[in-house]
Amino acid sequence: MAGSTAQPRGIDRIAASLEPAFPLRMLGFGLIYAWSTCLWDIPLFLPFDGAALQTDASWMLSAAITPLACIVGSLIGRSRELATFRSLYVVGPLLTAIGTLCAIAHPLLSGSVQAAAYVVAGVGTGVGPVILILLWTCLFARTETGVVETVVPASFVATLFCAIVVPSFQGGVAVGIVTLLPLASGALLLLSKRALDLGAIPRENVGERRAPGTVKAGNIARMFLVIFAVYGLGCLLPSVSLADVSARADTGATILGMLFALALAAGIVLFSRHINFEALFRWISAPFVFAVIVTALGTPAAAIAARALMNAVFTGIEIIMVLYFIRLAQKTGRTSTFFMGIGECAAYAGVFAGYVAQPAARSLIESGACSPAVFCLLLVGAFTIVTLLVPRRDVVWAEPSDPPERTGDATPAVLGRGSEADADDVIAARRIAVARRYGLSNRETEIFLMLAQGRSRPYIRDTLILSKNTVATHIRHIYEKMGIHSQQELIDLAQEGE
């Protein structure tokens, strides 16, 4: 085949045939958050007497190390992506798994061995996940924006699934499952990277999406403060309520919060032409404010509702952050490692600061110096100020410039102008003949012509004014009718007909 490239074989072709809407293997990104939820937030492990590991000193060490690891990763990634260091694809998952085992086992040890396990637990669980997240975002930065906007929210389904299923196991089985989660994420990352390299996953046309000019440093700083403040204020909130909440109820609140955030994300992904970050932030503002309001009631039911709402906020802001900094990297030409290191530093620094401030806040309330209602009122005021910092004019929010004109028939008027119009019309006519040979409808033919030109899914959505879900469905039907699995195969097929 003229101009053909390496095509998916074996396990890659099987996987491609099973993932028509988006690459299922990329849901491995959510396993990192599943690991974090199961290890720290859910009481699974016997040495901790029914308490979540988040109450252990190893969590505090890990929480302190993680923002530092993000800063180091960002600095390393200023000039080159972290993905260029191939050894990290093994180091990240292994470090996380070893740290997990040490975090669970160190209470059973004693003396210098216990101290060593404590340090390894903090370093492993603090550095390993950062490496995995940055490697995943390097992959997302190379992947078509439409796919990323679907995969990132959908990957939290894997997190939700693990949060529901893993608590049914205890003892050694639970330890084994949680330890395997980062290893599974690393394996799926390598499979996804291979699929992207082979063309089974559509790549982003960076030149087509890049916006003129450079991003303002002030906007990055404002986004950093927004993320830091949301996580910090959210993690501070539980200290305001004096109601006792059982570990099981807390786990249920976590699951309910994830369900709410996923439902919101699914609606936006399926029925919008592109992700509108500013609008998404407005949507998560409502559950944040309601979480603060119900906390002031001081009852166990109110505390559970507040934690469910706040978990929805945390899931939502994580989705916003990942998509924001990936798009920022795509549109400015800077590395995704650099931007995501900044974003993750803001998130984890906010978590650390919120938990460190909890004892002081609880002391204020218990001493009567500040009532829960007044404290919650102060939190609402602080969050209101934070919402004013959300960047509203940024290259990330910019729409694709100069969208092509459309004609009334199935052929878009982007095939050529001036002296090259006749030659382009001939090419277009031959490509239309190819489309008719495979029985494509008028709309499918229109999309086929754009794909044959190398256009990305976001470009097609914005040109034809269609939702992400509609374009994905049409492309899946085109691939099925033509018996192909990637855009590169489609381009090769179109070139054969010219």
Question: Explain this structure to me?
Answer:
- There is one protein chain.
- This protein is mainly α.
- The chain folds into 3 domains: 1-206, Up-down Bundle (Growth Hormone, Chain: A); 217-398, Growth Hormone, Chain: A (Up-down Bundle), CATH 1.20.1250; 418-496, Arc Repressor Mutant, subunit A (Orthogonal Bundle), CATH 1.10.10.10.
- Helices cover 70% and strands 0% of the residues.
- The chain is built from 19 helices and no strands.
- It has helices spanning 11-18, 29-41, 57-76, 88-105, 111-142, 145-165, 171-198, 206-209, 217-236, 247-271, 277-295, 300-332, 336-366, 372-387, 421-437, 442-452, 457-464, 468-482, 487-496.
- The longest helix has 33 residues, at 300-332.
- The two termini are 13 Å apart.
- The model is unreliable at 1-8, 11-21 and 399-419 (pLDDT under 50).
CATH architecture of the largest domain: Up-down Bundle
**Mean pLDDT across residues:** 81
- Sum up the overall morphology in one term: globular
Helix content: over 70%
CATH class of the largest domain: Mainly Alpha
- Give the H and E element order: HHHHHHHHHHHHHHHHHHH
User: Radius of gyration, rounded?
Assistant: 24 Å
**Share of residues in strands:** under 5%
DSSP strand count = 0
CATH topology of the largest domain, by name, is: Growth Hormone, Chain: A
Q: How many helices in DSSP terms?
A: 19
Instruction: Indicate the structural class.
Output: mainly alpha
> Largest sheet, if any?
none
InterPro entries: Sig_transdc_resp-reg_C-effctor, Tscrpt_reg_LuxR_C, WH-like_DNA-bd_sf
Keywords: DNA-binding, Transcription, Transcription regulation
GO molecular function, one term: DNA binding
Protein name: LuxR family transcriptional regulator
